[in-house]
Amino acid sequence: MPPADSELMTEVRDGLIERLAVLFERYQTMLFNFFLRLTGNRAVSEDLVQEVFMRVLKYRSGFQGDGRFGDIDVTLPANAKASVRMKTEQGEIYTDFDMVMTSSSARFERSERGDRERYRISFDRPVVGAINGGGPEISLTTFSGNIYIRKGK
């Protein structure tokens, strides 16, 4: 069985830098495709993938090993009022709060290329939930992890 991401990252944190190559092989294609969809530019996407792994290397000492890669875990006071915009491509959303949930609509972006105008339509549809009637907006986005919004005591 191949080693888990957290096991590999723990080894990288502890000085076995060569183990980062396994994570790179595991995630480079997924990251590249994500950035390519985001930017539409292959060269920029390749640079962004490299930047991700350079940052992993730079900040490896802060890795704690608890939680899954990509998970977002937030605890808010029980009386917090917020409008939370949440999006996860491959995970689930969990909360202790009673939220009134809605979905956002498609986004249209105008771009001009040459002599033509083009519109890009995004159907990413994040879920929006109101905590205790709503309030300031909080945006939580992850690609491969779960989102946890916990109610504090």
Short description:
The protein has three helices and nine strands; from the N terminus they run αααβββββββββ. With 153 residues, the protein is of the alpha/beta class. It folds into two domains: 58 residues, no CATH class; 80 residues, no CATH class.
Key terms for this structure?
153 residues, alpha/beta, 2 domains, four-stranded mixed beta sheet, three-stranded parallel beta sheet, 3 helices, 33% strand
Fold and architecture overview:
The chain has helices spanning 5-13, 20-39, 42-58, and strands at residues 72-76, 82-88, 93-95, 99-103, 107-113, 116-122, 127-131, 137-142, 147-151. The strands form three sheets. Strands 4-7-2-8 form a four-stranded mixed β-sheet, with no helix packed on it. It has a three-stranded parallel β-sheet with strand order 1-9-3, with no helix packed on it. With 153 residues, it is α/β, with parallel strands linked by helices. It folds into two domains: 5-62, no CATH class; 72-151, no CATH class. It has three helices and nine strands.
Note the topology.
Blueprint: H1 5-13, H2 20-39, H3 42-58, E1 72-76, E2 82-88, E3 93-95, E4 99-103, E5 107-113, E6 116-122, E7 127-131, E8 137-142, E9 147-151
Parallel strand pairs: 1-9, 2-8, 3-9
Antiparallel strand pairs: 2-7, 4-7, 5-6
